[in-house]
Amino acid sequence: MSVQRQFETAFDSSGNDLWIFAYGSLMWRPGFDFAEQVPARLIGEHRALCVYSFDHRGTPERPGLVLGLDRGGACRGIAFRVAASRREATIAYLREREQTTHVYREVTRSVWLEDDARRRVSALAYVVDRGHVQYAGRLTLADQARYVRQGHGRSGHNRDYVLSTVRSIESQGFRDLKLHQLAELLYNDTPMPR
């Protein structure tokens, strides 16, 4: 049985609500109906600008740079609960949005909800495939800034993606040191043409 089919079986046959872990643009532009959103933490992977964007925020000729969950550490984000009746439509939407070039692996991860109950739930997450041609690995701050400044794809300017993610992180009451360092450089740039 394929990994994709195993995932579908695990999630689609349960009849329960679906949890989705958001760490990038899904935090500020989920694009799907949800019943609840809760600050959350995923242990074992961290948020990193480690994916060359050939579609949403760049092109193959002028790639941008977007976030992925990469090995090690932890990541704070948002867990969205989607009603069971919306599960299939939501997964289909996310696959169309997140899997345009298959740079992410669609996985389930244990996520700790940072609510009063401190619940642990199993959530859908998109983890970078380190073997994919779009995996950028660790780039210097200067290289990140260069890719972000040049990046523009069908979803807009790469700079806007980074700054919107930083604003969303701040609205949740925490900081991401590396993203905030990059944002400081980008805030000091002149506005990009629309």
Automatic annotation (TrEMBL):
Protein name, as recorded: glutathione-specific gamma-glutamylcyclotransferase
Keyword Repeat: no
One of the protein's GO biological processes: glutathione catabolic process
InterPro entries for the chain: ChaC, GGCT-like, GGCT-like_sf
GO molecular function terms noted in the UniProt entry: glutathione specific gamma-glutamylcyclotransferase activity; transferase activity
PANTHER family: CATION TRANSPORT PROTEIN CHAC-RELATED, GLUTATHIONE-SPECIFIC GAMMA-GLUTAMYLCYCLOTRANSFERASE 2
EC number: 4.3.2.7
